[in-house]
Automatic annotation (TrEMBL):
Lineage, uppermost ranks: Bacteria, Bacillati, Actinomycetota, Actinomycetes, Streptosporangiales
GO molecular function: DNA binding
Stored InterPro entries: YbaB-like_sf, YbaB/EbfC
Organism encoding this protein: Sphaerisporangium album
Key words of the record: DNA-binding
Protein name listed in UniProt: YbaB/EbfC family DNA-binding protein
Length: 132
């Protein structure tokens, strides 16, 4: 519980510096998030998928041997490969953000626009709070 009687100006300086460092780390991570790619495979590697950090499909590759499968099996394998790639991208996003936050994910890492908005709001708040 916060006790105003124990408040020290040094505490405010320390919290402000920690916040500034967190915003700086997250700002650097934002560019890295845009480069993340997730990879997934199915049908014993005959079908592969690549998605971007937001889970959008970038590429689906079918080994010529996959064409021996019936159409339903191909469709299921493509779906499995895409889902595996999306899970891989989500894991990479989470890992990158967790490292940047020192293990604390207080926001949805899948919502890059939300993260960027949060960073901008935090930076604006910090700028407004600094003495002019």
């Amino acid at each position: 519980m916060f006790d105003p009687g124990d408040f020290q100006l040094d505490d405010l300086d320390r919290v402000a510096e920690q916040s500034r460092q967190a915003v700086q780390r997250l700002s650097g991570v934002l560019g890295e998030l845009k480069t993340i790619r997730g990879v997934g495979e199915a049908a014993d590697g005959l079908i592969a998928a690549v998605v971007d950090g937001g889970g959008q499909i970038q590429e689906v590759t079918l080994d010529p041997r996959a064409m021996r499968l019936d159409s339903r099996s191909i469709a299921q394998a493509v779906t499995e490969a895409v889902r595996a790639a999306q899970q891989d991208a989500r894991r990479r996003n989470d890992e990158l953000l967790r490292d940047a936050m020192g293990g604390d994910l207080a926001f949805d890492p899948q919502n890059l626009d939300g993260v960027q908005s949060w960073l901008q709001d935090a930076a604006r708040s910090m700028k407004d709070s600094w003495p002019h």
